[in-house]
Amino acid sequence: MKYFQTAGWCLLFVGPALAYRHFLTCRIPNRGFGTSIVNHCRRLIITHFSSQFFSWSRRIYGFTGSPRVYRCANTAIKFGSKARPYEAETTQYIGRHTSIPVPKIIDVWAAKDGSPVTVLEWVDGERLEDAWPTLSSEEKKSIGQQLREHLDALRALHQPFDGGGWIGSYNKKPISDALLFNDACGPFDSDADFNRFLLSRF
């Protein structure tokens, strides 16, 4: 009887923990960010049990005020006031229309403050800045060629909608660039409009 009681207590505490990790890391077919039961459970867990999530995951990027990325098993979860709502859509668009390897978007939703929370597929690998000093000249040259091919593929993309073109992000939404401005702006209908905006910043 003692062993059954012990097993019962283990199930009581370990069961929810296993379910917690399962819902955080479960992959489902992405159909326009469909709101499936799994997605709802994941959102509820991260939203209402955030302190437990932080203790069970590992922070890999971001500081106060910047987008933060946590790793939990085979997923990466990105959120923060400076995360951009169109990043997930842009990532999916690039994945559909180029051969550039991008992480799969599992789910995305808005937090209470309106900022996006994005769940992505975790891709194992070594950071380039760590590996670079150990690479040979040929390996560095090969990486440079890959980056060039990726940039060429991005430049070859066409805007997804007709209408004369614009300067902005995916789906004719505002653009943001930390090197130029902190707040999102635009979209701009022409190069002239964009240039006038840049000049107005000085």
TrEMBL record:
Q: Which UniProt keywords apply?
A: Signal
Where does the Aminoglycoside phosphotransferase domain start and stop, copy by copy?
A: 85-171
Gene3D superfamilies found in the cross-reference section: 3.30.200.150, 3.90.1200.10
Output the InterPro entries linked to this UniProt entry: AGP_Transferase, Aminoglycoside_PTrfase, Kinase-like_dom_sf
Ribosomal protein recorded as keyword: no
The signal peptide stretch is 1-19
What protein name applies here? Aminoglycoside phosphotransferase domain-containing protein
State the source organism's domain of life: Eukaryota
Q: Provide the organism lineage as a comma list.
A: Eukaryota, Fungi, Dikarya, Basidiomycota, Agaricomycotina
PANTHER family with a match to the protein in the record: AMINOGLYCOSIDE PHOSPHOTRANSFERASE DOMAIN-CONTAINING PROTEIN, AMINOGLYCOSIDE PHOSPHOTRANSFERASE-RELATED-RELATED
